[in-house]
Amino acid sequence: MADVFISYARSTEGEARAIGEALRALGYGVWRDDEIPAHRAYAEVIEERLRAAKAVVVVWSAEAAKSQWVRAEAEVAREAGTLVQLRLDGASPPLPFNQIQCADMSGWSGDAEHPGWRKIAASVADLVGAAATGSAAAVIIAPLVRKLSICVLPFANMSGDAEQEYFSDGISEDIITDLSKVSALSVIARNTAFGFKGKSPNVKEVAHQLGVSHVLEGSVRKAGARVRITAQLIDGAAGDHIWAERYDRDLTDIFALQDEISEAIVGALKLKLLPEEKAAIEQRGTDNVDAYNLYLMGRSHVLGGNAGDPRRQEAIERLSRRAVDLDPSYVQAWALLALAQYNLHRNFGRVGDGGQGALDHALALNSDLAEARSLKAKMLSDAGRHEEAAAEIAATLRLAPESFEVICRAGYISFADGRLEDAAIHFEKAAALIETDLQALALLVSCYIALGDGENVRRVARIALERAEKTLTEDRGNGYAMSVGVIALAALGETEQAGDWIRRALLIDPENWVMRYNFARAFATSLGDPDAALGMLAPVLERDSGWLLWDTKNDPTFAGLRKDPRFQAMVAEAKARVKAAEAAVTA
Predict the structure, then answer these.
(1) Does the N-terminal peptide bond of residue 96 adopt cis geometry, omega within 30 degrees of 0?
(2) Judging by beta carbons within 10 Å of its beta carbon (0-12, 13-18, 19+), is residue 367 exposed, middle or buried?
């Protein structure tokens, strides 16, 4: 039996063949499904070869992410511990495979020094053992053993106050960002690292699972005007500490402290920090510690909380407004202010410019800020300027291909254009980037329902239900989480339980219009009750500020309702009311 099994979608057959030949050149036995004997059953041979392989190389692409065969083969390999992943066209592995390291092979043309290929060769060598061919293997694999890579585990919040979690998370994210600017160091992405949050993992196991040479862990204690940060850099193979330090400083020193930690790690790894890299690490959005603290607090609300509660957006607006008052040049805070005002205007009927002024200010300060440009793209999409929106979001994706905000908004724009397969790819990645996200998962269920992909509907619904339940253990009154749980339960066929959740949610949070909208989506599709869907939508459309009219026009969930005279009358009345309100504001 061959040492290496290659799994791929037909659109990448040429690339899979090239990868197989490159591995054969290293002395490995490689098998692809073009070698099935004519006298044997396809599925039988696949399973036999898959389970016998010591390494299973999965070639992810947009097509592979939707392939039942590729997913099934990847799942077998994941359970067996033989999974090696690579991506070719920028498409990340779907859930749950996105929690495992994936080599980026974009631009590979057989180059032995390509970073993605080096990672693949190292993983295969680790799983299979030494290759049969000596000299060819040594050229590629030997340097890989020396390649430095690191996972920054989320720093523990030791403040004795769960409300300070945003601060320790922010410190962890900033260190990940800083180390990512060091060209000689490979850094595990934030979403993968934060998958270990709250789990107290064994560091050697983390290093082995992610294929990294080093792991950084630590803690943050913030009390009043003082902060204590401890950090330990650990050799992933031996489990030994190679550097550790404790810092007790005034909070006003937090930026210098972050720079000091990053530079100490680089020094401990015996790397040379280039002048431009040192300058990039030291470049912050603000030098004002109070503004920075407020921004971190506001961003934590964006990534969590009840999406149907206007008080959440009002809190973000207040925090970001105060941050820009303290530092008028803090571009990230201006973008956050624009987002809060946009959501208040669009989702809750707030009179005003919908964040346009704050967005313009952010773009004037930094025309390439991804958070601001992606919001601009979303506004263009809302206005029906779809070609401009598509061009803007494509440019923004090139600027920040791993940004949750950018990827999620790319999904929304594709969803509005009816490009559901593209939307599903973006929402898959967005849901993987932030482990607390519910919005991308809810829309992902809708995409797969509309595409008739029952297997993926059930897969995503299970993940959405798990996240909704986890959110509700921390906030039992979170109406949005309950609505996503209902969508998931309905998609899984748990109709009685979905009904129980709906009744409880309406008692707890009856004025949550986003929640009611999601209930209508569940009734219109998985629960198969159009009368109940219309009944749930009616009071929402009566109070709609315009955003639901936009959503009901584009949401494939309501395709079956659009010919219903009752639905048409409700939408017409809402349109007339919104138009009159807009005219009054203009006057």
Answers:
(1) yes
(2) exposed
Nearest to 105 by CA among 118, 93, 116: 116
Q: Which two tokens stand for residue 293?
A: 């603290």
- Sign of the dihedral defined by the CA atoms of residues 490, 493, 497, 499, in that order: positive
Write the DSSP string, 315-327.
HHHHHHHHHHHH-
| Amino acid at site 456 | N
**Closest by Cα among 20, 28, 21 to 3:** 28
DSSP state of 159: S
Provide the pLDDT for residue 130. 54
- The confidence score (pLDDT) of residue 136 equals 37
- Looking at residue 216, its amino acid is L
Element (H, E) at 219: strand 214-223
Band (pLDDT 50/70/90 cuts) for residue 458 is very high
Inter-helix orientation angle 420-433/454-474, to 10°: 30
Nearest to 417 by CA among 397, 442, 396, 393: 393
- Whether the predicted pLDDT of 554 surpasses 80: no
What is the rounded end-to-end Cα distance, in angstroms, of the chain? 78
CB 430 within 8 Å of CB 437: yes
Residue 320 contacts by C-beta under 8 Å, 6 or more apart in sequence?
A: 294, 295, 298, 333, 334, 336, 337, 340
